[in-house]
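Re: beginner question about structure tokens

> Can someone show what the tokenized structure looks like for a real chain? I only ever see the sequence side.

Sure, here's an example I had lying around. Input first:
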Amino acid sequence: MAFWPKKKNHDRNRICDPAAIPYAEFHGVGLSIGSRKVLSGLTLSLKEDRVGVIGLNGSGKSTFVRMLNGLRQPDCGSLKLFGALAEAAAPELPRHVGFVFQNPDHQAIFPTVEEEIAFGLTQLGVARDESRKRALDFLTQHNCEALAPLPIAELSEGQKQLVCILSVLVMEPRLLVLDEPMTSLDALASRRIGDKLRSLPQKIVMVSHDLSHLEGFDRVLWLEDGGIRMDGAPFEVLPAFRADIDRRSGVKLELAAL
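And the corresponding structure tokens:
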């Protein structure tokens, strides 16, 4: 959940255009953390409704998607988000980009579901009492009204992740970014979250190690060593990635046998 400065008029002097297409433009973007180059030479535009991001651990996936909501800023090249340079757009991005982390325990901050959902509305300037009422209405719209009074700590992992998704959706973002949202879920919860995501009107960028969740997407980016190894339709990129994993696995088995 992102926090905005208090008493800030978010409608004044806006520089982002929430209807901008493409919604993200990378031009030679790079980023180093300490002595390690995490991203390098990224040049691409995002305009599709559903974009998947894949790659091995350490390939730069999480850093890449964190740039989409201002959690990371490039140290070389230029990045535009919703038509504005990322650094200047950063204060507005929580309004336009909903971010869901891998672990819901790292995102939820309030004791009950109703309070967690209502907080997003108070960030938009809705009065406290009105935000509670609208939170209940929103949960009802998503057939989750029974969750409203429950402590988040007592929910299942799937319910926790659903609440985290709803807590950003209540703010009506233009773009929903998810970093491995199904990692801690069982097969049933994972399917339910996947079905929920497919039903949403928001544009989605999602990192996933489970390639099956990306098969119906419009585009998949395969990151390797901080750059784009392959960029295309799922039917092109996913088989190539699977084949690369098989090849790497075979090499390891041969070495282990020596």
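Each token stands for a local structural state, so reading them left to right follows the chain. The longest strand covers residues 36-46.
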